[in-house]
# Entry
Amino acid sequence: MRLNNQCTCVLLLCLFTLAASTSARAVESSTALRCGIDPEQSAARIFADPDGKRGWRAYRNVKDVPVLELGIGQFARLWTGAHGLALIRLEEPDEDFVADTDYCFDKNQLVALRTSGRA
# Structure
């Protein structure tokens, strides 16, 4: 069976998209994996500095966090894992994208870091 050029292009685009999304997921979860934490689970603690003026405050759940001021507000989730490991995910929304940074700490120091941006 011979594919025409249009089918070949569509097939290549699908394969590229699949590979890119799989790779992004692997990178996205590498810091969490290093910490032994599943960020799909509920965070142990939630913090936000919505406007950069009042400072950081703890919240009971994500729904309680006020709308973040674009380019200034920050939102953080904290998960704790085995052996004293902790994962902190910091999200900073801007007009066109959201910057995400994952920090994995052991009892004494930073052991892994991942940063990315998404539209």
Q: What stands out?
A: Residues 5-118 form one domain. The CA atoms of residues 40 and 87 lie 12 Å apart. The beta strands are 45-49, 57-59, 74-80, 86-93, 98-105, 110-118.
